[in-house]
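Thread title: Can someone regenerate the structure for this chain?

I was given the following input by a collaborator and told the matching structure tokens would be attached. They weren't. Posting the sequence so someone can regenerate them.
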Amino acid sequence: MGSKNIDIVRTTTWSAGPGCHGGCGVLAHIKDGELIKIEGDPDHPWNQGRLCARALAMTQYVKHEDRITRPLKRVGKRGQGKWEEISWEEALDYIEKKMKDIREEYGPESVIFSMGTGRDIGPWICMLAYAFGSPNVMFSLSGSACYGPRLSACNTFQGCYCVFDAGQWLPKRYEDPKFKLPETIIIWGYNIAATCPDNLFGHWVIDMMKRGTKIICVDPRLSFFASRSKHWLQIRPGTDAALAMGMLNVIINEDLYDHDFLEKWTNGAHLMRMDTGKLLREVHLDKTGAPDNFVVWDENSGEPVIWHSSETEFKTLNVKAAFSGLWDVILADGTRVTCRTAWDAYREEVNKYPLDKVQEITRVDADEIRKAARLYATSKPAAIQWGVPIDMTPAVTPTCHAIASLWALTGNLDIPGGNVIAKFAFDAVSYALPGAVGPIGLKDKKMDAKRVGVKEYGPYRTFHWRAQTDMTLDQIFTGKPYPIKGMWIQTAGLLNGIGLDPKKWKKALEKLDFIAAVDLFHTPTTQYADILLPASTFLEKNGVRSWWVPLQTINKAMKVDQCRPDVEINFELARRFDPDFKYDTVNELFDEILKPSGMTFEQLQKKGWAIPPEDHPSSPYHRHEKGQLRPDGKPGFKTPTGKFELYSTYREEWGLDPLPHHEEPPFTPVSRPDLAKEYPLILSTGRRSPAYFHSEHRNIPWLRQLDPDPVVEIHPQTAAAHDIGNGEWVWLENWLGRCKMKAKVTPIVPPWMVMAAHGWWYPEKKAAEPSLYGVWECNVNQLIPMGNQGKDGQGAPIKHLLCRIIKANGKETNNG
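Best answer:
Regenerated them for you:
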């Protein structure tokens, strides 16, 4: 469609460009091949015409004077900022030779494929890595501490991920008769300014607030939601699990939980041996001499059963009568063991968190916790929306387990208006993910044995397909168990955004034999590449998006010089590396991804988007009751027991605590009072900006005007104690390093905490060392260590470090 020589192209955002996880429908106004305007598509079922500042600034982004538009080859030393333009054929030939040389001498696993967040890079970087023969695709944040751990954790105890229900699966959204408005939503570590982290939108919550939904907000800052909440739980960062356990304490001991869900859909009735403390697995009964008080479950049906010696057959257990007390079991060899139920063990753990203790741990008033727990438990339905702070603690899985227990035990899982199981639209999946398998996967499963971390960490071995980041960084230096010689970097700012302890990452990059990078602009990280390829924005590519709903296409609207889409770059190199690569065109790959939908790429492109019909396995609700979650088609959840696991059998198998619990993070006033004497303030980072996505967009004029400087939020009392005025520059320091930021004196943070912006660098400063665009001056990641991942290899202490603040006099430098 169009007018006056203007073509209006309907497409879908999914970076590069806005940077975020996308999904918004947009209308791109193209005149003579140039973008002159972009606006939200009012007919799109998700954003309904609304659009963020980053998308609206695409007119400045696509034709930015600093954009890389041709392949570049480094001609000086790494970090000198000296490059020459070469042709695409030269660039691809050079990459092919260098990487094949490493593969021949050291093995394909010696090349790491480093990715960040944002763009639709996951499947395409896996396609390239697997074609090359390497299993080592690395999400480059310590402990993969962004979204992935929550996804992995949910697969550990409930088999599938879930999100809050805002009617997003339904064509009529809030007006659909199947949708029920949540009476209450807990907003747990989530900020409205982020627009759509984790593929969800803050304006959905606002839509429901306007319709009557009440808010409980868990956040140390006075966020948008906190200011409009019924209960604001101003938590000490890193103590989320303790808060959840305190709420569970109220819900269980005041009998506010859903007995039916507990009895039918959890493994609470499963038995634990008192002698070993482990869940009883398989029992073969000799009925002769069996005790009167005996309970076990039928592994075929997944249902608890009971047998009394006076009866001749098993019968279905009256679970309410058997959920407590001790039970004797006679094993096949005649051994009698005493057991208790998992529910008994679970309640015992929860009772370790009385509210006075939880108040001491979290700094949240006990009465407020009690009121919030009662409100959530008695709201029918209710939902929880959690944000990335949940990932950013080492004990991420026990924390997720505690929070998820809230929606399970209140019967708010997989129901309208609750937390809904999130499956890919029409089961169209591009690559291997927990709970889904697509056409892009390892050619030879034997390759996976060399993936970094697969032997050491259960989640990585079971369903987390990435290389463990902290171990990978260490292996670059040690060369054990095999050397790492090369790195492919795509959508990852190791020095300016995603890498903790960035000076260590700098040393690691200097040590590698070969680095290829793909980006749209130069960054501090690209200065260490040997070759740099120019990528495209979402307006310059075709693609598919099946992340939940709707199923939709990304449609090419324009072209910028010699820039190429990530999928086309990786596709061409995959064909060069793998003689058996089975696709001739990118569209063939798209067609195979979309095959479960019954549509080709061209057909879906004409349709625009599609929402799965009612009763499709990727359409809500009550899928656990319909047998749409388990591979065997039986009712229940995709876990080893077929239940929501209050007691995690995976965690037990991995030698980890199977029950939810709080673990104090490694660098807090509680765990390190010695450090707190010198660094008395809690340092939290990662406050989302409406202008930026992580380390992107500092060079876009409209967006830089909105958020011009790296800011640290300081409470007025704290600022006064340090003689710091609003707008003055300060140093944040701890035992690891320091960075310089502008003080924003505001009561929205507590006196005992500062909140620092992340992802900062200065594109306007010199590229070459020692400047590296000023990254060593302003990057807060210099104060955050690598190597403090959780016991299961996931999570990192990003939200709860320690620091001090010092007024800057404008003369200090912090060059690396």
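The radius of gyration is 27 Å.
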